[in-house]
């Protein structure tokens, strides 16, 4: 039996997808089939009951063996318009993007176009000599010694966003910054921006076009993407930093580190792929690499893998990642032993979805 416990310091480290510190279907979700265990459903519903009283806004979905146990929407998607959240509402999921980027690299590896053990500079147009030993896998696992963010201040970030940079533009900035000693884990959004540059350089496509054609469309994730401004406004949640205070508008995030938006249903499709290999986007051996607890996080009972973090409790394994940016926070987790998937997304960034996510995961894997 697994009891998931989150390390606060790790949550703080992984929640931010922004540059500065901090951080197809009809959209309906079918009810749980009659054969789904009523005991666990009742317990999950009981755990969700306090959320409305707490002013939670967002969507929660729990599945086991790809059957919906609970799917609930709370609060407004848009306060000014009086539009409620629904299971079809799209949310920005920030650093949950990183596991998609890691899988993109592995797809290119399976195509024979690179190896994760390659020097990253072998797949970038130009690199300083100091970077010659940094590998793609070190970028994936946050052990390359790369700075956390491309720029350091909100003012620098706003100026850079205004230029709508490509990943290759970002790479030039990152490669000009100091490089630490590779080998020690230190969370880095900038490292994932470099991975976006690798994907663009090797594939000959923009990161967004590559992700759409190679990952999102094959998995049926038609309600997901990275171009948030282009998504239909009536389908998007408005992010809030207070009950009625919208978060500052951000038209473009640094894509490979945290630009993805999705519905809970689409994230469940992604989780099903990770749990079962269906659809067969990767070979089983490569998919197992995504889920492997690769690198220890100093001072924590946590390991970081290919865009995900893992905990072990005896023989059980929980795999998850958080995401956070102004106005949005996300928890997305799976438990391979019971094929359980838990997703909590919120458009109120004062709410920590990890707490609810861990409670729901604990219930879902403990009870029939």
TrEMBL record:
Keyword Signal appears in the UniProt entry: yes
Subcellular location as annotated: Membrane
SUPFAM superfamilies tied to this protein: beta-lactamase/transpeptidase-like
InterPro entries to which the protein is assigned, alphabetical: AmpC-like, Beta-lactam-related, Beta-lactam/transpept-like
Record's GO cellular component terms: membrane
Beta-lactamase-related domain boundaries: 52-353
Keyword Signal: yes
Pfam families: Beta-lactamase
Residues spanning the signal sequence: 1-20
Keyword line: Membrane, Signal
Protein name: Putative secreted protein
Higher taxonomy: Bacteria, Bacillati, Actinomycetota, Actinomycetes, Pseudonocardiales
């Amino acid at each position: 039996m697994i009891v998931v416990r989150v390390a606060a310091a790790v949550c703080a480290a992984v929640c931010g997808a922004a540059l500065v510190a901090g951080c197809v279907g009809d959209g309906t979700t079918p009810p749980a089939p009659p054969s789904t265990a009523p005991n666990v459903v009742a317990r999950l519903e009981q755990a969700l009951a306090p959320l409305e009283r707490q002013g939670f806004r967002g969507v929660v979905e729990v599945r086991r063996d790809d059957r919906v146990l609970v799917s609930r929407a709370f609060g407004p998607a848009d306060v000014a318009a009086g539009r409620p959240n629904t299971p079809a509402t799209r949310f920005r999921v920030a650093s949950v993007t990183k596991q998609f980027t890691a899988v993109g690299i592995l797809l290119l590896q399976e195509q024979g176009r690179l190896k994760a053990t390659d020097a990253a500079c072998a797949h970038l147009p130009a690199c300083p000599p100091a970077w010659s030993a940094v590998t793609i896998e070190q970028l994936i696992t946050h052990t390359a010694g790369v700075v956390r963010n491309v720029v350091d201040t909100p003012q620098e970030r706003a100026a850079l966003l205004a230029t709508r940079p490509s990943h290759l533009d970002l790479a030039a900035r990152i490669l000009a910054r100091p490089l630490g000693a590779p080998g020690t884990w230190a969370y880095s959004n900038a490292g994932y921006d470099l991975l976006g540059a690798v994907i663009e350089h090797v594939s000959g496509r923009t990161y967004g076009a590559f992700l759409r054609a190679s990952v999102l469309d094959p998995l049926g994730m038609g309600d997901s993407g990275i171009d948030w401004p282009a998504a239909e406004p009536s389908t998007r949640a408005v992010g809030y930093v207070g009950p009625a205070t919208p978060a500052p508008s951000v038209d473009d995030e640094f894509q490979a580190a945290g630009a993805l938006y999705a519905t809970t249903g689409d994230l469940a499709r992604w989780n099903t792929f990770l749990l079962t290999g269906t659809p067969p986007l990767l070979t089983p051996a490569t998919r197992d690499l995504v889920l492997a607890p690769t690198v220890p996080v100093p001072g924590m009972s946590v390991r970081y893998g290919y865009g995900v973090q893992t905990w072990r409790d005896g023989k059980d394994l929980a795999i998850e990642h958080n995401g956070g940016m102004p106005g949005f926070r996300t928890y997305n987790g799976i438990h391979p032993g019971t094929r359980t998937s838990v997703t909590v997304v919120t458009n109120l960034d004062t709410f920590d979805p990890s707490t609810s996510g861990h409670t729901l995961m604990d219930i879902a894997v403990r009870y029939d």
